[in-house]
Amino acid sequence: MANKFVSILGVPFINTTMDKFIDLVQNHIRKEEKTFVVTANPEIVMHAKKDDTYKKYLDKAHYITADGIGIVKAASIVGDPLPERVSGYDVMMRLLKEANEKGQRVFFLGASEHVLKETVAKTEKDYPGIVIAGSQNGFFDWKDPSLANRIKEAKPDLVFVALGFPRQETWIGQNLDQFEKGVFIGIGGSFDVFSGNVKRAPEFWQKLNLEWFYRLIKQPSRWKRMLVLPLFALVVIKNKAAGK
Ligand code: UDP
C-alpha cells in the first residue's frame, strides 16, 4: 500500500504509527534497499525553510518522521492529523531490538569518543545478537573519505548517525550516493541518552507532552534554540489561516 504524507511547511512527513514504520524499515533491510530516514522536529522544519542546501538534503530522504510533539500538533492544525510521534530515540530502540533478533549489522556514527564507546559496550551487552559493523565518533574530518570507505566495506544493514541536526542530515545527504545498501538514520543526541550520559524526561513528562520543557529545565542553555518553537507554531497557524 502506498504511504501517505502530511506536508508541514513544505516538509513531507510520513503518516504512520511506530509499529508500521518499523515494519517498513525492516522490509528495506530485507531487500537491501538503501534508505535515508530523517526524524524531524520543528527546529529541522524551520531550518529547512531558511537554508536551501539543507532542504535539498531533506529532499533526498525516503522518509521523514515526526520526532517531536510539535510536528504532531502542527499536523492537527493543518487538518491532516498524524497518529503518533515516531521519535528518533524510540526508533533506535526498536531497531536495536529487531537487529538483535535478526543478527543484523549495525554501524554507530556520532557523539564523543567516550559516549560512543559506552554505546557500543551497552549494545554488546544488551543486544548480543547484533553484529557491530563498526563505529566512529562524531568529531572526524569531513573531507577525509576514509569514513565513507569504511562504511562501504562494513556493509551495515543499519547506520545510526548521531551528529545532531543539521550535521547528521547534511552528512547523510552528502555521502548517501556512495553506498550500496543500508538504512541511514539521523538520531540527534540518542547515544548520549542510550549510554546514560543524558537523562531523557521521565515518562510522566513525556505523557504530558512536556519533554521539551523538561529538557529546557535540565539544559537551560537551550532556551535560545527553543525560541524557534513558538515561531514554528505561529507560521503553521498563519499559513493555515492564509489557506496555504
Ligand atoms: N555531535 C557530534 N559531532 C559534532 C557535534 C555534535 O557527534 O560535530 C554529537 C554530540 O556529541 C551529541 C549529538 O551530536 O551526541 C547531539 O548534539 P547536540 O545536542 O548539539 O545536537 P541536537 O541534536 O540536540 O541538536
Question: What is this entry, summarized?
Answer:
The chain has 244 residues and is an alpha/beta fold. It has 13 helices and eight strands. Helix 2 packs across helix 3 and helix 3 packs across helix 8.
What is the radius of gyration computed over CA atoms, rounded to a whole number of angstroms?
18 Å
Bound molecules: uridine-5'-diphosphate
Strand content: 15-25%
What structural category do the secondary elements indicate? alpha/beta
Total beta strands: 8
Mean pLDDT: 95
EC number: 2.4.1.187
InterPro entries: TagA_TarA, WecG_TagA_CpsF
Pathway: Cell wall biogenesis; teichoic acid biosynthesis
Organism: Jeotgalibacillus proteolyticus
Fill in the keyword field for this structure:
50% helix, six-stranded parallel β-sheet, EC 2.4.1.187, alpha/beta, single chain, two-stranded antiparallel ribbon, 244 residues
